[in-house]
Amino acid sequence: MESFIEEFQGDHEKTSELVVTVDGPSGAGTGTLASFIAEELGINCYSAGDFFRGIAADRDMTVEELGKVADKQTDLKVDRRTLEKGLSENCVIEARIPSRVLGTYSDLRIYLTADLEERAKRVSKDQEEGKRENEEKSESLEEVKERIRKRDEENWRRYKDYYGIENTKDIYDVLIDNTEMTIDEQQEQVRKILERKFPEQLE
Ligand SMILES: Nc1ncnc2c1ncn2[C@@H]1O[C@H](COP(=O)(O)OP(=O)(O)OP(=O)(O)O)[C@@H](O)[C@H]1O
Ligand SMILES: Nc1ccn([C@@H]2O[C@H](COP(=O)(O)O)[C@@H](O)[C@H]2O)c(=O)n1
């Protein structure tokens, strides 16, 4: 068993029996999919993005501001929590890189994405509905697009600098592009995967 990030490699004791990780860029719907999987499997759901947002709030910063200045210790703090949760508790964890942090300790590694335009529309709609906390607000769709593009770029600059990892897809068990999919269609597809992979956990 191993993590794909050097910092977390070495032997870890894993007491959890069922861990699913969902990675993807902003607005891909990782939170939505992770909640669905957690509900289906009857386990808890965590978001490393929430850990990061918590640190930003404590420092009175937006996620974008923290993303620009976060040092390695900040990412290590977030990702250690991901590792600890995944090793000790049956759960689903979603964020940018939980599948890389947990590596082969994760029993199912999913990468979810959608076109930038579609992701920006989702984020913009969420913002209009007041759903996104301590995030910079944007006036137009073009601004949201540019902001989430920059955020994803900043994230990957840090992961590359701090962890030496690249944004490749070879580590995933399942890749889903949901640009043209409704939430229901996506859930139907993932339910079939869960039935094959974890038949005993599903009623
Ligand atoms: N397949 C889909 N089709 C259309 N809309 C979707 C789909 N999946 C999620 N959404 C919607 O997109 C919005 C963002 O979803 P969610 O919060 O799950 O994304 P996220 O990837 O966790 O975002 P972030 O990482 O930026 O917090 C929500 O309003 C959600 O209902
Ligand atoms: N290892 C990390 C470090 C940071 N994040 C970030 O959290 C931010 C907010 O995430 P959302 O999913 O709620 O948008 C995100 O921009 C990342 O910088 C992380 O997920 N994992």
From TrEMBL:
EC class of the enzyme, as a word: transferase
Highest taxon of source: Archaea
Keyword Iron-sulfur: no
Localization of this protein: Cytoplasm
Reactions catalysed according to its record: dCMP + ATP = dCDP + ADP; CMP + ATP = CDP + ADP
Pfam families: Cytidylate_kin2 (PF13189)
Region (Disordered): 122-149
EC number(s) on file: 2.7.4.25
Keywords: ATP-binding, Cytoplasm, Kinase, Nucleotide-binding, Transferase
Molecular functions (GO terms): kinase activity
NCBIfam families, alphabetized: cyt_kin_arch (TIGR02173)
The family this protein is said to belong to: Belongs to the cytidylate kinase family. Type 2 subfamily.
Name of this protein: Cytidylate kinase
Lineage: Archaea, Candidatus Nanohalarchaeota, Candidatus Nanohalarchaeota incertae sedis, Candidatus Nanohalococcus
